[in-house]
Amino acid sequence: MRYKDNADPVITLTSGPVNAYADVLRGLSRTVLYDYDPAFQLFYENVVAKAQKAMRLSTRPVLLQGEPVMGLEAAAASLISSEDVVLNLASGVYGKGFGYWAKRYSPNLLEIETPYNESIDPQAVADMLKKHPEITVVSVCHHDTPSGTINPIDEIGAIVSAHGAYFIVDAVSSFGGMKTHPEDCKADLYVTGPNKCLGAPPGLTMMGVSDRAWARMKANPSAPRASVLSILDWEDAWSHEKPFPFTPSVAEINGLDVALDLYLNEGPEAVWARHALTAKATRAGALAMGLSLWAASEKIASPTTTSIRTPQGVDEAALRQAVRERYGVVFSSGRGETLGKLTRVGHMGPTAQPIYAVAALTALGGALNAMGQKLAVGRGIDAALAVIDADA
Ligand SMILES: *Cc1c(COP(=O)(O)O)cnc(C)c1O
């Protein structure tokens, strides 16, 4: 065994958490200021302003001091009350999971569920809203990461908005890696974070909150207050003149500041383009060497994660173990329903570089062939290079 379990791998190509940019790591090492020091309060206000710019919001986003799963739970707890009728859209493990939270706050849950290699059809949402005018909240996951598939949230959002319902979007693993912004999809609560495509560590939530979502949460008597799940407590925390409800994660804010600078300075369009190109090269290479994609069509395959279907007779966990032992490369498995059925190659933040498509395909193809498959690895590499070089 060349690469042992107790040593860091050579290349981490997962779908989050991902490697942090070197500059972000340096940012994390800034000193830990006292949260009531005016320098920190002004710095925090500035980080929120950068997040607002990156998210292209006309209102101030909220930073919550916990991993985006906490932000999603906070969204459900704050916006959904027992009178609401929620339509949850589930095309994968995260989308389905949000429904369980929604159910905790309202017994009235409707769902559209697709097979986990497909995406939500906006027409089905329109039909459901027509049939159930009583629906008040719609929730969706943009990029259902354990499937590597994308839902058309801008189209769905337009339909939800016309109906008048509140729209909750999980864009944790798409924001920063492709063109998606809260107002593009008319989201009322749009949850994302630094630990996927922005290339920073897990530990914060960035949330877009519409004006009407603020009003709705304030009118909801069961919306959490004085709680880590509270969004309302953080409404004014962006201002250097207002106190924090509790101590923010100072080091994570330091890291986020650098991650946002990197994103804005490189230019969002350029960042999205290298995510898209890396994914396209990975897909082309996988297909050319004889593998299949998990996504039912390439149109819905994510630019930030490529899910490759596990070949018949291959143990997926053993495959990832072989990839790590032989080449020092780490991929993500599926989760829940997709566990064991696919392997995920992440293209997020610093790993959204086309050369990593070549590394991923080599490691995956090499390990599969060592396990007895007969893949044309060289053909896959040629196909990936053709995609990359056509773009040069
Ligand atoms: C990563 C991710 C989250 C955050 O959840 P963790 O599993 O705790 O990292 C939420 N939603 C989606 C779609 C994600 O990919």
UniProtKB/TrEMBL annotation:
<keyword id="KW-0808">Transferase</keyword>
<keyword id="KW-0032">Aminotransferase</keyword>
<comment type="similarity">
    <text>Belongs to the class-V pyridoxal-phosphate-dependent aminotransferase family.</text>
</comment>
<feature type="domain" description="Aminotransferase class V">
    <location>
        <begin position="108"/>
        <end position="335"/>
    </location>
</feature>
<dbReference type="InterPro" id="IPR024169">
    <property type="entry name" value="SP_NH2Trfase/AEP_transaminase"/>
</dbReference>
<dbReference type="InterPro" id="IPR000192">
    <property type="entry name" value="Aminotrans_V_dom"/>
</dbReference>
<keyword id="KW-0663">Pyridoxal phosphate</keyword>
<keyword id="KW-0670">Pyruvate</keyword>
<dbReference type="GO" id="GO:0019265">
    <property type="term" value="P:glycine biosynthetic process, by transamination of glyoxylate"/>
</dbReference>
<dbReference type="GO" id="GO:0004760">
    <property type="term" value="F:L-serine-pyruvate transaminase activity"/>
</dbReference>
<dbReference type="InterPro" id="IPR015422">
    <property type="entry name" value="PyrdxlP-dep_Trfase_small"/>
</dbReference>
<dbReference type="Pfam" id="PF00266">
    <property type="entry name" value="Aminotran_5"/>
</dbReference>
<dbReference type="InterPro" id="IPR015421">
    <property type="entry name" value="PyrdxlP-dep_Trfase_major"/>
</dbReference>
<dbReference type="InterPro" id="IPR015424">
    <property type="entry name" value="PyrdxlP-dep_Trfase"/>
</dbReference>
<protein>
    <submittedName>
        <fullName>Pyridoxamine--pyruvate transaminase</fullName>
    </submittedName>
</protein>
<dbReference type="GO" id="GO:0008453">
    <property type="term" value="F:alanine-glyoxylate transaminase activity"/>
</dbReference>
<feature type="binding site">
    <location>
        <position position="344"/>
    </location>
    <ligand>
        <name>substrate</name>
    </ligand>
</feature>
<feature type="modified residue" description="N6-(pyridoxal phosphate)lysine">
    <location>
        <position position="196"/>
    </location>
</feature>
